[in-house]
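During the practical work, I worked with a single protein chain and the tokens that describe its fold, as given directly below.
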Amino acid sequence: MAGIRIATWLVATGLAAVPGIASSQQMLPPGGGFGSPAAIGNLRAAPPQAQSLAPAPYPPTSSPAMPIPPMISAPAAMSIPGFGGSQQVSLSLTARFGRDFPAPIANGLVWRIFPAKPDPSGTFRAIKEDKTANPVLSLPSGEYVVHVSLGLVSTAKALHLKDTVAREVLELPAGGIKLEGRVGDAKIPPTAITFDIFKGSQFEQISKVPLAQNVVTGDVVVVPEGNYYIVSNYGDTNAVVRSDIRVQTGKLTEVTVSHRAALITLKLVGERGGDAIANTSWSVITPGGDLIKESTGIFPRMVLAEGDYRAIARNEGRTFERDFKVVTGVDGEVEVLAR
């Protein structure tokens, strides 16, 4: 049966692998588990279309990243309640995954500074933004909210700046998910497989919008600590695997999804081994009559889950059929005789 292998690795600055930390891995059926080691490569947020998050007065603590109001200039900021101090404060900012991970996060951060109160229109507008790991910002003394995001994880903290120097450390309860697919020992090409990530469990009977869609093999999606389930689509037919995972703060969870499927090419021929006949319409159905795929072409190719099927070819008003079996990892041609 299809399944997943997952490894959870302790990570530190910038989600880079920390040597000397043990990991556990095992093969699991769809439904859950943890498993295979690797350092995080690219930090990646979900594509914009995957985020369906309502705006808020200012970003809430420990929430998925969301659109931030535009910047305003420093002179405009001075008229907003909460400012008013003439003394400049040097504010140093760092982020970490939590108290158990004292090393600062080294990359992928986006910092924004907001006034503590909205402008006359009721909007909180960022007055400063920085994408370095450890920004040092100069601000007038006063009340602020600092917001930091990493992938789909963010947190915010209220600040009262009154001394000439201030230092703040914010904690992001974040972990990473890295995905790939295999058929047997063969890695599925990244262009042939995609992954969707959902919050919670596949067994929860509620409608869900994915946190991240069409995630590519090798990318790392940074998410809040918690339970998630992965939907892996190999091709565009019925080769789908669903598996539950858990993401832990400061750790990379690498998921290898094993599909039981094969790539099949259909041909309508006048004789065995003959040339394919053009202008043919195809349907692939299960023994029970469920439609799996329709296609038109001389050599339609499709990924099918392991099992039994019937190919139906229609050409010049005539219909031809053949039953065939798909075996995991055995790619090949299915010829249907036009007789």
Residues 74-77 form the longest helix (4 residues). Helices lie at 74-77. The mean pLDDT is 80. DSSP finds one helix and 25 strands in the chain.
